[in-house]
């Protein structure tokens, strides 16, 4: 499946505007908690024992900065942090936020074809972004490739709306707007996405639904 052209232009707004609208998307489309997300992605980084960490589709870096703050002094246990995004406006926002931190390397890259060697990372996070990838099988395969055997990927997937009728209606409206804008590719059923990750070779360590989000910790098998 080819990537829709609008997914190359959906992030042309300034990164600060993306952060503002992202808050409303979190509350109304994801129906989730910011603290839940911070805690979830922090825990995956805590599992890193001196290896490199990959922050995929880092965006403006706002959520990741909260994860690092919550991680506190334990962030020093991570040898190297690499973040990437394909959208220039988002990457510029991350560079403004982390540009003076020598331990964080930021670059422009496409998740469907990553510029990293096999087994480069001990942990990886994909926060609020995996449902924006137009060729999901390729993206999952590439992240699998750059994880070390035994490495962990934490991600949250936007599901087809659940809950009360008014909640589903509102989430569907926001999702359709997101697809038209180019900041959302599609939503998933939980079992559908679980099938995709298993086909890509991952082992499912954590599988939890909160609101309209499926939270997953996936492991590349050790052998």
Shape: globular
Strand content: 15-25%
Query: What is the straight-line distance between the termini?
Result: 31 Å
Rg calc: 16 Å
Under the CATH scheme, which class?
A: Alpha Beta
Brief write-up:
By secondary structure, this protein is α/β, with parallel strands linked by helices. The protein is built from seven helices and seven strands; from the N terminus they run ααβαβαββαβααββ.
Q: Could you explain the architecture of this structure?
A:
The protein is α/β, with parallel strands linked by helices and 223 residues long. It has one domain (5-219): 3-Layer(aba) Sandwich (Rossmann fold). It is 39% helix and 22% strand. It contains seven helices and seven strands, in the order ααβαβαββαβααββ. The protein has helices spanning 15-30, 34-46, 62-71, 88-98, 136-146, 165-181, 190-199, and strands spanning 52-56, 80-85, 104-108, 121-126, 147-158, 203-210, 213-219. The chain has a seven-stranded mixed sheet, with helices on both faces. Strand 2, helix 4 (88-98) and strand 3 form a beta-alpha-beta unit. Helix 1 (15-30) runs antiparallel to helix 6 (165-181) and helix 2 crosses helix 3. The longest helix has 17 residues, at 165-181.
């Amino acid at each position: 499946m080819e990537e829709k052209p609008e997914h190359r232009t959906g992030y042309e707004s300034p990164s600060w505007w993306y952060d503002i609208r992202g808050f409303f998307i979190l509350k109304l489309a994801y129906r989730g908690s910011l603290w839940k997300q911070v805690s979830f992605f922090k825990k995956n980084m805590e599992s890193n024992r001196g290896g490199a960490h990959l922050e995929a589709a880092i965006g403006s870096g706002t959520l990741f900065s909260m994860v690092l703050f919550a991680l506190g002094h334990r962030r020093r246990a991570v040898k190297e942090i690499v973040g990437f995004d394909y959208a220039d406006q988002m990457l510029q926002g991350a560079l403004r936020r982390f540009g003076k931190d020598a331990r964080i390397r930021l670059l422009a890259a496409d998740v469907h074809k990553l510029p990293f060697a096999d087994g480069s990372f001990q942990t990886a996070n994909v926060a609020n972004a995996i449902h924006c990838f137009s060729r999901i099988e390729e993206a999952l395969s590439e992240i699998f490739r750059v994880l070390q055997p035994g490495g962990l990927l934490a991600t949250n997937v936007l599901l087809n709306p659940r809950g009360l009728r008014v909640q589903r209606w509102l989430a569907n409206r926001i999702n359709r707007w997101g697809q038209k804008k180019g900041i959302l590719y599609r939503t998933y059923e939980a079992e559908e996405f679980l099938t995709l990750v298993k086909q890509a070779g991952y082992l499912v360590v954590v599988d939890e639904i909160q609101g309209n989000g499926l939270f997953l910790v996936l492991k590349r098998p050790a052998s």
